[in-house]
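Quick log. Single chain, no ligands specified.
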Amino acid sequence: MAVSMPNADTMMSLVEFLPGVLFEYVLHADGSRKLTYISPKSHDVLGYSQEDLLEDMDTFWRLIDPDGLDESTSAFDSKLVHPSKGEVWIRVSAQPTDRKQGDAVIWNGYIQDVTDSKTQQAELERLNNKFERISTYDGLTGVLNRRAFDEVVEKEWKRALRDDTELSLIIVDIDHFRNYNMAYGHLAGDDCLRLVASTLSKVVKRASDIVARYGGEEFAILLPNTGLADAIKLSERCRVTVLDLKTPHESSAVHSILTVSLGVSTISPEFDFNMYTFIEAADTCLYEAKSNGRNQVVSINKL
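-> predicted structure:
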């Protein structure tokens, strides 16, 4: 049974029905190209009529790919400025046919507007980043939250054991924070937590160092490749920097301004520690600092 081919009018109706742009060009052996056909949808998708693009082929090539069409790539996305729609995204695909014009190969291509899908993709990425940030960072202070800190400390612990390097931990507690909340109100207490978190983050400058909200008014600072002596020095800088803020704290039994207490522990290759003992040691040092009058640093070597 013979298969009948659609006539020219039917083909034109089908072309006009397509949401995208059909185009055809001749690719010569020297790399030069000649646009031989483009469908009427070019006006809607690209903002230029068939006639305009066929008369000015440079405009067509510049529109669909400012970096130059690469025949080794079958499809790519490109951004252009549409005369009436503004910035839009298009997806361009092209492939060679088995037809030739002399030594030149005839290529067919298709262009579609993918602005909506790009917008949806960008929104999805934005939401994913937002959810990732919510799950990773403390919403009040902007530093890492406890869950993220637990993941990081386990990873850095394993790295320290593998690489035979030192790892230090500082736990920071705002002295008499409950009294601060009662005296100045919870909004002021939130501002205080944000201020301390920001201050600690500024003191801790290395990209590898981690500041996290450990819980309530406590913060944790994790210091990879850091020995006890350097961790103590950093702890003292944190203590003094908070003190230098001169934030009023009249309800404190320690000072009339805001102060912090800090506990420091370090794991090094010769120490027979596990990860939980490492964390508990810093917590124990913090307890000693608070028991001894607060506004001070206590390290593991003083226990």
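The chain is about 40% helix and 25% strand.
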